[in-house]
């Protein structure tokens, strides 16, 4: 009886709770049964403390692979959110980078720009700007082929595409650096840069540009004629694509099943379930915490 009492106390349970469970199950009860009952009582008291109107029953879930995800209150928020275009960030597209990527680095494919613009329009974005050097309006040459060139004129009429300045001086073409236009507009409008270029030269120019490019660069891939940005633009621990494109997050980041053990979980960082209380702290197991406290 005392061994079970001490073990449960180390896990952070209250003494009166442990006594109530042991009196209910008996001193000969297995430690797993005692812990299961403590978890059930803990979850029950938490739900009652929150003053929830609806009565919910918490069921212990096995640690094995779960065939069906349990619907959590966080997930239901996604269906209830009504988003508007005012919450969407401005989009600045590196036209040359997108066109060359769609042309497989062999030609300037204007259709790739159209595909990227259409993808953002379908997402509800209205503030879209594409930068392309003005010399791309010239006639296509064998060493620099341009396909579907009429798309550039069409997007320019729709006030989506902007040509960066260029001119000829004594037969030599003088071209303004279009990458600087792209980064400057995106920085000033607090928008998103769509490109597979890292702009390392511009990152070294200004510290604020370096931080901005690291946090607001949206890379992409083309699968035939399908424009595909990643679902996790800043990596697996960063925001989702939907929240990355918005000024204020509207869709819960964590769609994993919440841990049925809650704060009483002893798996630490090895737990495969979601722990909202561990978002900004190291996920150490109770055993690790006890070892650290013992050393101290």
From TrEMBL:
Keywords on record: Endonuclease, Hydrolase, Magnesium, Metal-binding, Nuclease, Zinc, Zinc-finger
GO CC annotation terms, alphabetical: cytoplasmic ribonucleoprotein granule; nucleus
Chain positions of all zinc fingers (C3H1-type): 253-278
Alphabetical list of InterPro entries matching this protein: Rege-1_UBA-like, RNase_Zc3h12_NYN, ZC3H12/N4BP1_RNase_Reg, Znf_CCCH
Superkingdom per UniProt: Eukaryota
Cofactor needs: Mg(2+)
Domain called C3H1-type: residue spans: 253-278
Disordered, as annotated region: 45-73
Keyword Nuclease: yes
UniProt key word Magnesium: yes
Residue ranges with Polar residues bias: 48-61
GO molecular function: hydrolase activity; mRNA binding; RNA endonuclease activity; zinc ion binding
Family to which the UniProt record says this protein belongs: Belongs to the ZC3H12 family.
Name assigned to this protein: Putative ribonuclease ZC3H12B
